[in-house]
Amino acid sequence: MRKIILLLLIVVSFFSCYQPKVAPPQEVKGAIGENAMVATTHPLATAVGLEILKKGGNAIDAAIAIQFALTVVYPQAGNIGGGGFAVIRLADGEVSTLDFREKAPELSKKDMYLGPDGEVVQTNIRLGHLASGVPGSVAGMWELHQKHGHLSWSELINPAINLAYSGHLLTEGIANSLNEKQNNFQEANRYQPWVINDKGWNKGDTAIQKELASTLSFIQKQGRDGFYKGIVADQLVKEMILGGGIISAKDLIDYQPVWRDPIKGSYKGYTIYSMAPPSSGGIALIQLLKGSEHLGFEKMEFNGAEMLHYKTELERRVYADRAVHLGDPDYYEVPTAALIDDDYNKTRFSSIKKNKKTASSEMKEGDVAPYESTETTHFSVVDPAGNAVALTTTLNGSYGSSVMVKGAGFFLNNEMDDFSAKPGVPNIYGLIGSEANAIAPGKRMLSSMTPTILEKEGALFLVTGSPGGATIITTVFQSIINVIDFDMGLQEAINAKKTHSQWLPDTLFIENGGISTEVQLDLEKRGHAIRFKESTSKINAILVLEDGSLEGGADYLRSDSYAEGF
Ligand code: GLY
User: Fold this and answer.
1) Annotated catalytic sites, by residue?
2) Which residue ranges have their beta carbon within 6 Å of ligand 1?
3) CB-count burial class (<10 Å; 0-12, 13-18, 19+) for 89
């Protein structure tokens, strides 16, 4: 049945508009594939990935095609106007990681978001032209293709162009998110981009994006130059000049992605590869796993009071380290080795008390901010040869800066908010920072994106990652311990209720229905301030099963995510 649905999606996608209709799995078991698997946040993007793999493309080809397709079908986070990180494990075991994170424009200044009163002007850093960093996604995809691509660049962009040109039908989730952001779209744009709709968007409405199709065609014909030079670059720079932004033609031409050494660690015999700074994800994940090993979560009741107390205390310490020590390694000496050192973490976590939360003021003080909408997107791919890609990409907030480049049809990020605009002042994720993550021209802002690949006895085991701003790291952590320590299947691990804490705000977030009243009272007695949320974050992951087949887990309970294999 899955195969038939998918075939239909692929065939129809190139000729007309269509509505994906995918029933979530009836049992707590992900999609199973003998040879290959794709898990993304949108059925159409998954279909594009599978189509590329079936044509003989490798996992990297599929990832590139998915990234461009998500720009069309998942505009709140899929992007060419943002950036991200990719962790790649080739079938021969070689692991590499690509940083295509946005950069601060050359005209940016450390205090550029501070008003006359010395306070951060939140609207400037979150909404509109000044909020954008120099986009890295197209250069990132081009770099991936130069190094690992098998099919032609042109073939990989075709599906996205067809989706943009012919149109696709909006899912309920995307229609709702477009409706929520109407005021932002009005405020941030000098014209009426297609997303503005006075009557409101509905599930099943058609999104035709001819301007975006044209932009993608330039990229298809000219490679990275089709975005960073020529007509599209001119449109972006004009948008900046007219809207009060500072990204220049030189910023675009100069942008380069960077291959970085992965953050590598071990956990109970498994080897973990994740993203190095400027993402905090890899270091923080290794710290969390070391803490889990030290504290022995596997001996505790899953999501019981004891486990959640220790897990929360562990997370608070790791996020306190993040706030002080992490930033762009090209600008700040990040103490990576010290932070993932066994002895350091053992000592750090030994201060956790059994029955009592440690006061945040004993670690460090700071103000809190409420959570806002968090959007990023992660996808995982494994091809028939065994190559694997974990890729997380973002515009930062949902629809980024809300600025759609006039004539070019794509959203720009509001990634400047991931910098620490003022020490101790939280960003939209409630994260605070320090000098390590201060704004500087050409610098990359600290991220939480955690694309991660695990090996078991030298062979591919798990490909995972998540969207969700600050919650990314703890969600990826839970996806790993749920499988390794609590013996869950992948889909079960994804469906399981998640919790999150991050030092400041000084709150333990728990998904609705995640704990019993008894556990809640116990945690409150230990000093935890609990806040329930509808969801924390969404995993799209792939697990290699004992017989060598692949389980694709998609977070269909919390999103439109869809996994499919063959
Ligand atoms: N913009 C969210 C992150 O990079 O963590």
Assistant:
1) 376
2) 376, 394, 396, 415, 418, 447-449, 469
3) buried
Quote the pLDDT of residue 25.
Answer: 41
Q: Which residues of the chain have pLDDT under 70?
A: 1-27, 363-374
**Tokens encoding 8:** 């239909």
What pLDDT score does 477 carry?
98
- Please tell me the distance from the alpha carbon of residue 229 to that of residue 241, in angstroms, as a whole number: 16
Per the CB < 8 A criterion, the answer to whether 130 and 116 are in contact is no
- Atom in ligand 1 nearest the alpha carbon of residue 446: 4
Alpha-carbon distances, residue 398 vs 132, 168, 178, 201 (angstroms): 13, 20, 9, 16
The residue whose CA has the least distance to atom 3 of ligand 1 is 447
Q: Residue 33: left if φ>0, alpha if ψ -120 to 50, beta else—which one? A: beta
CA of 476 to the centre of ligand 1 (A): 14
How far does Cα 95 stand from its chain's mean position?
20
- CATH of 262-370+450-531 given 3.40.30.10, 3.40.120.10, 1.10.287.1260, 1.10.246.130: 1.10.246.130
Please state the separation of Cα 363 from the chain's center in Å. Answer: 28
Q: What is the DSSP letter of 381?
A: E
pLDDT score of 537: 77
- The pLDDT of residue 21 is 37
Nearest CA to ligand 1 atom 4: 447
Which pLDDT score is estimated for 374?
A: 63
Three-state secondary structure along 477-515?
HHHHHHHHCCCCCHHHHHHCCCEECCCCCCCEEEECCCC
Task: Classify the C-alpha dihedral 306-310-313-315 as positive or negative.
Answer: negative
Given a contact cutoff of 8 angstroms between Cβ atoms, the answer to whether 87 and 275 are in contact is yes
* Cα–Cα dist 145/453, whole Å: 20
Which of 319, 418, 419 is the pocket-test mutation for ligand 1 (most atoms within 8 Å of CB)? 418
Q: Which residue has the tokens 């993550």?
A: 437
Give helix 305-325 / helix 342-350 axis angle, nearest 10°.
120
C-alpha gyration radius of the chain? 22
| Domain locations along the chain | 262-370+450-531
DSSP E strand stretches across 228-300: 258-260, 263-267, 270-274
Contact status, residue 33 vs residue 53, Cβ threshold 8 Å: no
Beta strands 95-100 and 562-565, pairing class: unpaired
Residue 363: C-alpha distances to residues 318, 320, 448, 502, 504 (Å):
11, 7, 21, 12, 10
Q: Say what the pLDDT of residue 34 is.
A: 98
Residues 375, 281: Cα–Cα separation, whole Å? 16
Q: Is residue 200 within 8 Å of 179, Cβ to Cβ? A: yes
- The ligand 1 atom at the shortest distance from the C-alpha of residue 394 is 1
Q: What is the pLDDT of residue 27?
A: 54
Helix (H) and strand (E) counts for the chain?
20, 19
3 state SS of 394: strand
Q: Distance, CA 48 to ligand 1 centroid (Å)? A: 25
The answer to whether the CB of 27 falls within 8 A of the CB of 62 is no
Q: pTM, whole model, 2 decimals?
A: 0.93
* Gap from CA of 360 to ligand 1 centroid (Å): 23
